[in-house]
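Marked as duplicate of an earlier ticket. Keeping the data here for the record.
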Amino acid sequence: MELLEAGVIRSPRGADFDQRILGIHIKLSEVIARQQPAFMAVESPFVEKNAATALKLGQIRGGILLTAGIHGLPVGDYNPMQVKKAVSGYGWADKSQVGKMVQVLLNLKDPLPSDAADAAAVAIGHLLATRRT
């Protein structure tokens, strides 16, 4: 496995929610155009106790899935426990354990920022779940 690119898409504070989703779509589309991936992997969101937050996460996720569809990318969908188990061997691993395993598995000199490490872990989990033996 090789990490080609990592980053975090951040929306400007105070932007209207529809513009935030559009910004995520545009930036994600740019990465897709640049890297030409064969698939996209996403993590199912942790169920929030706050209904408004859960709804917003679902809307953002919908935008991300639509972006995958527009670009013709199949999507692997994994829950947090599946991702943690795939990367660390333990479904209850904490964020720091997952980050360290991502660094080891990708042979990175420096650790990735937490959100980027989480995304890399989802991609690694997808690769491991779909590899052909």
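See parent ticket for discussion. The mean pLDDT is 93.
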